[in-house]
TrEMBL record:
GO terms for biological process: regulation of RNA splicing. Residues 41-56 have a biased composition (Basic residues). Its EC number is 2.7.12.1. One of its GO terms (cellular component) is nucleus. This is dual-specificity kinase. Residues 24-40, 68-79 have a biased composition (Basic and acidic residues). PROSITE patterns: PROTEIN_KINASE_ATP (PS00107), PROTEIN_KINASE_DOM (PS50011), PROTEIN_KINASE_ST (PS00108). GO terms for molecular function: ATP binding; protein serine/threonine kinase activity; protein serine/threonine/tyrosine kinase activity; protein tyrosine kinase activity. It comes from Amphilophus citrinellus (Midas cichlid). It comes from the Eukaryota. It is found in: Nucleus. Keywords: ATP-binding, Kinase, Nucleotide-binding, Nucleus, Phosphoprotein, Serine/threonine-protein kinase, Transferase, Tyrosine-protein kinase.
């Protein structure tokens, strides 16, 4: 299951007990989601048809009490861990005489994320990430804290307010009896989970435009400050508010959701890497992994740009661009969609086992070859409309999916792309503040 490979803060700002009907290509993806080697690396095209709709609004509400805890709750009788290293806690327990546990938002290999009442923030609700009492996960949490602190400390006067709205805010962190705990702002569904809950109905072109602009701004800020995220994917892009309107599609005899606000935040900095730090050989979750990473040619900021290109395709179509779990097949899909891998990259890679006489060693007549041939096609053939804005989006995606990292579109240039010309002034507000020259790498 795609959601069952927990890899940090992104997984669990929100509940994950959803079970919508899924298309076959998603079942395969979610059952076989590849586990990257550690917490730190974490890891049908639809035709346009006119639909008759009946619309109504929907807004989930919370009935959780915000009353202050009783004295009997302010101190646990004992602090115990389960056999996997999770902190044993329940609703009503209070940590640090501050965080009253309300419910569990999510659980993973790294630990759990709890919805809590923060009694030092006026009783507001926060997401408290409680790391297992296991050294490798604690060390990964310390690295994430370091990145988030460096981001936060550069804006003490809230001068660059737009920054705070695009990267998740860390409020506090502490060590609770061997468990690293991080307090975050409480966000809503991830862009992937909303898609999943909506039967993988893709986002509209206008929604894709606004989310794309925010993601490019947020990641440009990281790159400007010598930081690569390395794990960008729809799960790690969260809506600030995932309230939606519901429409009934008479033709398909189903209800469909439209998110009211496409304001998003980039989360999960557990695998973020500064330019001067050691770069792991393999980064990114499989489906969003750049070719230079697969070929072990070294990576830097452009690997994030490749991931964004894959994300935008998924928002637009509702399914993954590279649906595979094998390196050779992944490269074959790239060639089918984007054209041949450049000869320079083939000559330079140590992964010569994937090539023969300067070309990808791939048997198109095999079952795997048939799968790739039937499920992949040249990128522009995925267009849902011949309208100019759709072609502009695919021009942007193509520029982000350049094989050669040095030729791949830089995010500073992506923000000037014609696809964003029709972005509303209010949607792009704050971009000048965001693009200040601020160095957080020291």
């Amino acid at each position: 299951d795609r959601d069952r490979e927990p890899h940090g803060a992104a997984e669990s700002y929100y509940p994950r007990d959803f079970s919508p009907n899924m298309y076959d290509y998603r079942r395969g993806r979610e059952r076989e989601r590849e586990r990257d080697e550690s917490y730190r690396r974490k890891g049908s095209r639809r035709k346009h048809k006119r639909r008759r709709r009946r619309t109504r609004s929907y807004s989930p509400s919370s009935s959780v009490s915000t009353a202050r805890p009783d004295d009997s709750r302010t101190r646990a009788l004992s602090v115990r861990d389960d056999e996997e290293g999770h902190l044993i806690c329940r609703s009503g327990d209070v940590l640090q005489e501050r965080y009253e546990i309300v419910s569990t938002l999510g659980e993973g290999t790294f630990g759990r994320v709890m919805r809590c009442i923060d009694h030092r923030r006026g009783g507001s609700h926060v997401a408290l990430k409680i790391i297992k009492n296991v050294e490798k996960y604690k060390e990964a949490a310390r690295l994430e804290i370091n990145v988030l602190e460096k981001i936060n400390e550069k804006d003490p006067d809230n001068k660059y307010w737009f920054t705070c709205f695009l990267c998740v805010q860390m409020y506090d962190w502490f060590d609770y009896h061997g468990h690293m705990c991080i307090s975050f702002e409480l966000l809503a569904l991830s862009t992937f989970d909303f898609l999943k809950e909506n039967n993988y109905l893709p986002y509209s072109i206008g929604q894709v435009r606004h989310m794309a602009y925010q993601i490019c701004l947020a990641v440009k800020f990281l790159h400007d400050n010598k930081l690569t995220h390395t794990d960008l994917k729809p799960e790690n892009i969260l809506f600030v508010n995932s309230d939606f309107t519901m429409s009934y599609n008479v033709e398909k005899k189903r209800e469909e959701r439209t998110v009211k606000s496409t304001a998003v935040r980039v989360v999960d900095f557990g695998s973020a890497t500064f330019d001067h730090e050691h770069h792991s050989t393999i980064v990114s979750t499989r489906h969003y992994r750049a070719p230079e990473v697969i070929l072990e040619l070294g990576w830097s900021h452009p690997c994030d740009v490749w991931s964004i290109g894959c994300i935008l395709f998924e928002y637009y179509l509702g399914f993954t661009l590279f649906q595979t779990h094998d390196n050779r097949e992944h490269l074959a899909m790239m060639e089918r969609i984007l054209g041949p891998v450049p000869s320079r990259m083939i000559r330079k890679t140590r992964k010569q086992k994937y090539f023969y006489r300067g070309r990808l060693d791939w048997d198109e007549s095999s079952s795997a070859g048939k799968y790739v041939r039937e499920n992949c096609k040249p990128l522009r053939r995925y267009l849902l409309s011949e309208a100019e804005e759709h072609h502009q989006l695919f021009d942007l995606i193509e520029s982000m999916l350049e094989y050669e990292p040095s030729k791949r579109l830089a995010l500073a240039d992506s923000l000037k792309h014609p696809f964003f010309e029709n972005l509303g002034i209010g949607e792009a507000a704050g971009s000048k503040n965001w693009e200040g020259n601020r160095d957080i790498s020291r």
